[in-house]
Write a structure and sequence with these properties.
408 residues, alpha/beta, Rossmann fold, six-stranded parallel β-sheet, 14 helices, globular
Length: 408
Amino acid sequence: MAHFAYVWELGSNFGHLANFSAVSRELRSRGHTISVIARRVDGYHLFLPRDSVRIYAAPCISSRIPRDFVPRTWSDMVVHAGFADPDTLADLLSSWRSLFQSIQPDLVIHNFSAAASLASHSLSLPSVNMGLGYGLPPSTQPLPALQPRSQLSESLRLELDAAVFDAACRALALLQLPPIESIHDIYTGDTLLCSFAELDHYPSREGGRYYGASFELDAGVPARWPSAPGKKLFVYARASGPHFRQLLTGLRASGLSTLLACPDAPPGLVDKLSTDTLRIEPHPVNIRQARQQADLMVCPGGQGTLAAFLLAGVPVLAFPDHQEQSIQAGVAQINQCGVATLPPTADVAALLKRAASDPQLQAQAQAFAKRYSDYSMERQASALSDDLEKLVAGTALESAPTNTAWRS
């Protein structure tokens, strides 16, 4: 049996662990050993049982990213993850190399990595990239802009790539290791995209292997709406989010029957702000039940949530909290998947009413659900595990038609 090491180096959201949960269970059921190297280890047991994996803290740096910084490309993003300074990067690489040499994995699964990917490459460890498109850019020259409709010049993108490439080569030289040949060596190996083509953050990607999105359906408390007539909204929002007050005001004014899941709701918020048409639930809500009853899903726009509701034919109104969600919602809207976005200056109540009854949005969401009516998380986990076993055995993956890797 094989030893797989799953690496989450960049990003702060626990979705990086949640998305591996089903695959981890499947691999363990086949007798394999799993190590997880995570950027955050507090709370990992909520997604991966403590006795099921070996857990390690990921080497990382304390980087003060400017509040208004918006990365333009993948290279621009990893500058703040150690690639701004060769000495810092050399320290990171040394730490990652020591960790990999200590645990001796047969295959490294990189979820969202940069220094870790370069370290595994320097050790010639078999590696694969697995996750959302956002952290796994296509191997074009230069790397594409993160914003699909960006007018970022080729010369600037080449300049950003060159800075990261130079830092990597200098750091490797400090460790007396050979240089890489191109920036693509930082994330070498096959790329297994846990997404659908229509939801890929890089819509121009060619030849992607798509296994479908990851999400959890059955965790959480029962979905219970207020006993009010009319359309039903299911809303997921954090009280700490930048748009929460604007959204809450609109929900209350809309008069629509609304179930708001707000896991970080402060004490007193539920009783103070609930109305005859708005029920605030301070716990995660069972998604399977929610999507069976909702007419419209309202959320920041993370892919797992989007996909879970679109697969049930429920349209989504997104209010992105950060760049990744903004790109995700924008791509889904461009590809007519049944997603609309909430502009910062919108009349929220009016837009909620319109979106909940929009026949075009409903038709788009139902078309998405029909295209993937045979999709399931079980099939995704099985297909990913099959291909991970092939890779660890040294077998090359066959080319798969776009969007059907999980069907193979």
